[in-house]
Design a protein that fits this description.
The complex is a heterodimer. Helices cover 34% and strands 18% of the residues of chain A. Chain A is α/β, with parallel strands linked by helices. Classes of the chains: A alpha/beta, B alpha+beta.
Chain lengths: 164, 296
């Protein structure tokens, strides 16, 4: 006996209702999490920032120094190993200092060219892994200060994702 | 003649294609603007370069009229100093919670337990029996907690104090509750080291009036909130926060009342420094400076 062929409808309407449901859920989730101001600081790789109750947002884009388990980086360029930082006795990290001095000089020239005061304290954002010892943090902080970046801000993760 | 009843038509599905087009544009745009982990900053203002001392010269004499407040952390206790004197030490038991890479589960050890394992040539053990990297285990610490200890003398190893906390998740403490006398609802733990929650410390029921250290936080517990509260080891950070709030209120007229120096030794993890800075800023100390224990 010949097998009966299944009959298909000629025009099957494409049902978008379930897709709309999914899109609506995603849209509501996105609107809840939207940050209209944007992010002036982005978390560096290979480190975990400490959690803080601070809700202070950076006002402008600043030079970033990162201290993770392996390296100290200035604007994503590896400058010195964290091991070397911990091993040295002196407070000043000369390699980091020379890079920061260059950046500071460039910032001051840029400010002068734009007719802005060049002698104001420099702003810097320091991202430090939460488990880095205070010794390394203190040396980096002192070096930043010595290079003219005395307005130091530590990057942290907001507690509960910033929600009340 | 009887009117012919028409059979009902199938309802027509609305045309969703334009809405889909709109959604398809909106979702990538919102996705690019979404912040899943929000970052903030904690500010520290250093002295100007001309004022910085990069040598080991003795610091200048402190102003006798000023508060000169400092908050020091050692491996065993926290202590507040002002005008050359010190408040009683707030002793703590440090606990490290690791998130293992092998099973992504949390496991808590004291630093002594971790050091004993490392000295024996092993990394700290995960719940699945695998060991963490014994060189890099310190960077797998997820949370560092300082459990307040009740001590009768310097030699006493102390017993953990337990308190009533609001909760932000399953057994994750948020804010410690205080009673009408601004005292923590706390008791010393049972068993060796006080590591077992005291049976006498009960969770208050709905309708009980409670507050946290946050100003104007007095409230009557709602039934749904009362159920969420937990009994958890009292944090030494919370004890210090309460003292800092009291000091800031008491010396509000002094010129340097907003200044505090956080002092720590070389091995103190950055996480602890940020936790102390958080407590200081919440208590009203807007200008936080940092220094090393024993000078520097």
């Amino acid at each position: 006996m010949a097998r009966k062929m299944r009959q298909y409808a000629k025009d099957v309407p494409f049902s978008l209702t379930s897709m709309m449901d999914m899109m609506t859920i995603i849209l509501v989730f996105m609107i809840k999490n939207i940050d209209a101001e944007g992010q002036l600081v982005t978390q560096a790789e290979n480190l975990i920032l400490p959690v803080s109750t601070s809700k202070v947002q950076p006002k402008e884009v600043s030079l970033t120094v990162v201290v993770d388990a392996n390296y100290v980086l200035v604007d994503n360029a590896k400058i010195i190993t964290t091991e070397e930082v911990l091993a040295q006795q002196e407070l000043l990290l000369t390699k980091v200092d020379s890079v920061l001095q260059e950046r500071r000089k460039a910032e001051q020239e840029h400010a002068l060219a734009a007719g802005l005061p060049a002698d104001e304290a420099g702003n810097i954002v320091v991202q430090i892994d939460k488990n880095i010892p205070y010794d390394a943090m203190y040396k980096v902080m002192a070096t930043c200060g010595f290079a003219g970046y005395t307005n130091i801000a530590f990057a942290v993760m907001m507690k509960n994702g910033g929600e009340e | 003649m009887a009117k012919e009843v028409k059979p009902p038509k199938d309802p027509e599905e609305p045309d969703l294609l334009p809405a889909m087009g709109l959604f398809t544009i909106l979702i990538p745009m919102l996705l690019s603007m979404t912040a899943f982990q929000k970052l903030a900053i904690v500010e520290v203002t250093l002295p100007e370069r001309s004022m910085m001392n990069m040598t080991n010269d003795a610091p200048p004499e402190p102003d006798q009229q000023a508060l000169n407040l400092s908050l020091a952390i050692t491996p065993e206790y926290l202590v507040i100093g002002a005008r050359g004197g010190f408040q009683p030490n707030v002793y703590f038991k440090e606990m490290w919670t690791f998130r293992c890479k092998s099973d992504a589960k949390l496991i808590t050890y004291s630093p002594e337990e971790v050091k004993a394992a490392v000295d024996a040539g092993h990394g700290p053990k995960c719940q699945d029996g695998k060991e963490m990297d014994k060189e890099k285990y310190l960077y797998e610490i997820e949370t560092i907690e300082l459990w307040a200890l009740e001590k009768t003398s310097e030699e006493d190893p102390g017993r953990v104090r337990w308190a009533l906390y609001s909760s932000q998740g399953e057994n994750v403490p948020d804010s410690a509750f205080v009673n009408g006398n601004n005292e923590f609802i706390a008791m010393t733990g049972e068993g060796p080291g006080g590591l077992k929650a005291p049976a006498g410390l009960k969770k208050p029921g709905a309708g009980t009036a409670l507050a946290t250290l946050t100003p104007n936080s007095a409230r009557k517990l709602k039934p749904e909130d009362a159920a969420k509260n937990i009994i958890y080891p009292l944090s030494a950070y919370d004890l210090i926060a309460k003292d800092l709030i009291a000091i800031h209120t008491q010396f509000i007229d002094l010129e340097d009342v907003d200044n505090i120096i956080v002092v720590a030794n070389d091995d103190t993890q950055f996480d602890k420094i940020i936790s102390l800075m958080d407590r200081a800023k919440s208590a009203g100390f807007a200008k936080v400076n940092l220094a090393k224990l024993g000078g520097g």
